[in-house]
Amino acid sequence: MKTKVWKSVESRFAVTRPLGRLVVVALSVIMLTVSLVPALAQEGEKKVSIDQVPAEVKAAILKEVGDGKLVDIGELTEGEKKLYEIEMVVGGKEFDVLFSSDGKVMRKTLEGLKAKEGEEEKEPGTEADTFQDSFDLENRDFASTGRNKYFILEPGYQLVLEGKVGEHTVKLVITVLDETKKIAGVETRVMEERETEDGELIEISRNFFAICKQTKSVFYFGEEVDIYKEGKIVSHEGAWIHGKNTARAGMMMPGEPILGAMYYQEVAPKVAMDRAKIVDVNATLKTPAGKFKGCLKIQEESPVDNEKEFKIHAPGIGLVQDEDLLLVKYGFVNK
Predict the structure, then answer these.
(1) Cβ of 285: how many Cβ atoms within 10 Å?
(2) 91, 275 Cβ separation under 8 angstroms
């Protein structure tokens, strides 16, 4: 019995040996074929511009990128089908998105942060330098008048905030003026901020904003600053203009705020580098002007002076809290 069993087993191994080799060969062919697929896809890829893709794909790309930056577009050929893959940076993070020829999203993946020339690529999730600082401004259509949920850029609109800062009573009056200024070809709206301390004027700033027609995001193109002391102008500290001395526009208020989004509001190296992080999209705040729900809470900071502060914006109103200052009055005035 033992001998017969042994021979039987031996015979089975003898039969399966060729079969095993066949399986190994087949698997090798399959693995080789699979490994060639990315290479073939890459070989059939060519770079294209946003105006070279089908209308449905263009619309889908612009919607997906939103307030982010479109890095590049690749056209892939898969048999008789064409696919389109983009690299984009949104909220400081880099994504690869694959679209079908009719504009449907087939795949979206988070990649390492795109490194600048001469730098190493950063891993996703690292906080350092993940604030978005480029907003594809050249591909946007701007208006000098408009509004989104948390920001009103219409002539005559005014916010008045007051509060105690230490022993001093501070008042901040923000007014959208019936005045525009063209900056680098973009017509911006002038928003004046007038700040007093114990009734004495300490600062007037003229801020320049424009709203993106596609996304309703508000962009900040610079400011003129007059610092006062005893009724006289003593400084213009913090002034900057987009396009001058390497300064670039930042985003003041996204059209569709996303919790955790991080972006620069102004990009003027060594002068003004305020940046923001959305920390709450459903805050509630009680002010002398009323109680507001569904508010946006933003943490602002600056690597120039290492200061941090919080601001709260109410839907349909705008800024309702600036650190110790609370909204006391809002609405349209004749100015």
Answers:
(1) 17
(2) no
> Judging by DSSP bridges, how do beta strands 248-253 and 218-229 pair with one another?
antiparallel
Does residue 54 surpass a pLDDT of 60? yes
170 contacts 197 by C-beta, under 8 angstroms: yes
Helix (H) or strand (E) holding 2: helix 2-43
Amino acid at 184: A
46-113 maps to which CATH number? Answer: 3.10.450.360
Local confidence band at 94 (pLDDT 50, 70, 90 cut-offs)? confident
* CB contact at 8 A, 249 and 211: no
Pairing of the two strands 318-322 and 93-99: unpaired
Residue 297: what are its φ and ψ, rounded to 5°?
Answer: -110, 125
With beta carbons less than 8 A apart as the criterion, state whether 73 and 50 touch.
Answer: yes
Sequential DSSP letters for 171-202: EEEEEEEEEEEEETTEEEEEEEEEEEETTEEE
Within a 10 A sphere around the Cβ of 217, how many other Cβ atoms? Answer: 22
Rounded to whole angstroms, how far apart are CA atoms 318 and 205? Answer: 18
- The shares of helix, strand and coil residues in the chain, as percent rounded to the nearest 5, are 20, 55, 30
Q: How many CB atoms lie within 10 A of CB 181?
A: 18
Q: Which residues pair with 302 in a beta bridge?
A: 307
| Residues ≥6 apart with Cβ < 8 Å to 24 | none
Residues 6 or more apart from 228 whose CB is under 8 A from it? Answer: 200, 201, 202, 203, 204, 234
Q: How far is CA 244 from CA 179, 187, 247, 268, 319, in A?
A: 21, 16, 6, 9, 28
Instruction: Please state whether the predicted TM-score (pTM) of the whole model is above 0.85.
Output: no
Sign for the CA dihedral angle at 268, 126, 140, 216 comes to negative
pLDDT, tens digit, 9 for 90 and up, residues 198-230: 999 999 999 999 999 989 999 999 999 999 999
CB 175 within 8 A of CB 333: yes
